[in-house]
Amino acid sequence: MSEDLHTLKDHYELAIIGCGPAGLSAALNAKIRNRDFVLLGSEFCSPKLSKAPQVDNWLGFPEIGGEELRQRFLDHVKEKDIPITLFKVTNIYPGPPYTLIGKEKSFEADTIIIATGVSAGKLLSGEAELLGRGVGYCATCDGPLYKDKKVAIISYNQEGEDEANYMANICSKVYYIPYYCEILKLDPRVEIKKSKAKKITGDQKVEQLDLGEEQLIVDGVFILRDTLPAEQLVSGLEMEEAAIKVNHKLETSMPGLYAAGDCTGQPYQLIKAAGEGGTAALQAVKYLDSLKSADPDEVVSIH
Ligand SMILES: Cc1cc2nc3c(=O)[nH]c(=O)nc-3n(C[C@H](O)[C@H](O)[C@H](O)COP(=O)(O)OP(=O)(O)OC[C@H]3O[C@@H](n4cnc5c(N)ncnc54)[C@H](O)[C@@H]3O)c2cc1C
Question: Is 98 in the same domain as 37?
């Protein structure tokens, strides 16, 4: 059911980012409406749902286990012939059409639904201020910029090991700070630091990573979370108490850009995520129709 990024086209009507309950529900509705869309996700869809020991509030399935429900969701989209493309979006450039950037590819979509869940933990001190000036979320994307330089990679999961190994071929020094237990396949040139990062400092660009008991002198710091903070994914997106600000149509502050699920704020519940995903898809379809019927010289707005 998973497809790799080589199958991606250069342009879609709709891109759905995230394969948790919100993204899957959005995809199902886009499929039923027969739209040209792509569903982008991670290798393991919704680690959160799989961790729920027992779900008591999913209508019609009392006391179902989180993992069983997750499998049912995935079976449902498979049965509808909806592939999930393994593609982590690291940046979105304004549109429409929007440009979605990932590790090895970028492509366009007229409308987007962000269904990326919520990221664990707060932003690191200095992270937002130095973003794009040494702070990044995809080491391999920026690799060549750090030739013969020193970088630190903070990773919440094993995916970071591939990035660190790649950077070891380019950089003069790579520090690796894992925020998880089991390290699988790290290049011996990468130096592991089992500490928690306190802050990133630098005047115009990154100069140092503070690990408390130790200061690392580095040119770049990459932070690899399961989910990127939404405001870092799309620059200028209006937020409200760390959640993406949406109205009842799931419209964000940008035309053609919708958000659904945990990323729009509390309550963090499956039924809300799935409901919002479906609604966002239907609104995105309306928006696409309005683009088609609009006078090409007119500015389109459904706000
Ligand atoms: C232990 C636990 C128990 C829970 N129990 C319940 C319960 O009993 N009842 C209930 O209603 N809710 C429960 N929840 C909450 C529920 O799991 C969430 O509300 C729900 O999973 C949110 O769905 P979502 O689609 O918004 O996000 P998620 O399920 O977090 O899915 C987001 C997906 O997007 C992917 N993604 C993120 N960023 C990107 C990117 N940049 N590019 C591509 N893909 C990306 C992620 O890898 C992930 O697969 C529980 C949560 C936990 C942690």
Answer: yes
Centre a 10 Å sphere on the Cβ of residue 116 and count the other Cβ atoms it contains: 29
Residue 15 CB coordination number (10 Å): 27
Is 115 in the same domain as 141?
Answer: no
pLDDT, residue 292, reads: 84
Q: Which of 4, 46, 61, 228 for a ligand 1 pocket mutation test, highest count of atoms within 8 Å of Cβ?
A: 46
Ligand 1 center to residue 150 CA distance, Å? Answer: 34
Tokens 């794009």 map to which residue? 132
CA separation for the pair 265, 277 (Å, rounded)? 13
On whether residue 127 sits in a domain, the answer given is no
**Helical (H) or strand (E) element with 291:** helix 270-293
Write the CA distances from 278 to 26, 29, 203, 220, 282, integer angstroms.
Answer: 5, 6, 45, 39, 6
Ligand 1 atom nearest residue 46's Cα:
49
Question: What is the 21 CA–ligand 1 centroid distance (Å)?
Answer: 7
What residue numbers bound the domain in which 245 lies?
Answer: 2-120+228-293
| Token representation of residue 19 | 């394969």
**Phi-psi group of 265: left, alpha or beta (phi > 0 → left; psi -120 to 50 → alpha; rest → beta):** left
**Average model confidence (pLDDT) for the chain?**
92
CATH number at residue 194: 3.50.50.60
Q: How distant, in Å, are the alpha carbons of 104, 146, 152, 201, 266 from that of 217?
A: 28, 14, 9, 10, 39
* Per-residue DSSP letter, 296: T
Task: Report d(CA 29, CA 288) in Å as an integer.
Answer: 14
Asked if the model's pLDDT at residue 74 lies above 80, the reply is yes
Q: For residue 246, is it within any domain?
A: yes
Q: What percent of the chain has pLDDT over 70?
A: 95
Query: What are φ and ψ of residue 87, in 5° steps?
Result: -155, 115
